[in-house]
Amino acid sequence: MAIIAVLLSVAIPIYSRSITRSKESVLKNNLFTLRTVIDEYTYDKQKAPQTLQDLVSDGYLRTVPVDPMTGSADSWKIIQEDATNTVNQTQPGIFDVRSGSDKISLEGTPYSDW
């Protein structure tokens, strides 16, 4: 019984860390995809998207990806572009996307800063 308890006390933290690492990998991939698609949309349409749903409705994405840290596709933190630096100054739109999570990564940085 003691051997099983020792093995579990070693295995559970390793398993938990590997789950967190996989979520971080998915987050990095989703952020890269969203940022690339926002740039493509902006170049093609000569204006930035107003919402993430614009990317779906215009065929740039099938669905808005889920933020793996929050488990929701609606929790993304949207960064609006500065009106003076926009392609179309009458309609500033989405410039960047970040995670809506308030948790800290294994690296020690907040997910919302990625």
Helix segment tally: 2
Described by strand count, sense and barrel closure, the largest sheet is: 2 strands, antiparallel
Proportion of strand residues: 5-15%
Mean pLDDT: 90
Provide the low-confidence segments as ranges. Answer: none
Order of strands across the main sheet: 1-2
Shape: elongated
User: In which range does the helix fraction lie?
Assistant: 40-55%
- Beta strand count: 2
**Count of folded domains:** 1
Report Rg. 19 Å
Write the element-wise H/E pattern from the N-terminal end onward: HHEE
Distance from N terminus to C terminus (CA atoms, Å) equals: 43 Å
Decide which structural class fits the backbone.
Answer: mainly alpha
Overall description:
By secondary structure, the protein is mainly alpha-helical. It has one domain (about 1-114). Helix content is about 45%, strand content about 10%. The protein is built from 2 helices and 2 strands, in the order ααββ. It has helices spanning about 1-45, 50-55; strands at about 75-80, 95-100. Strands 1-2 form a two-stranded antiparallel sheet. The longest helix has about 45 residues, at about 1-45.
Question: Which tags fit this structure?
Answer:
114 residues; mainly alpha; two-stranded antiparallel sheet; 2 helices
Helix and strand topology:
Elements: H1 2-45, H2 52-57, E1 77-80, E2 94-98
Antiparallel strand pairs: 1-2
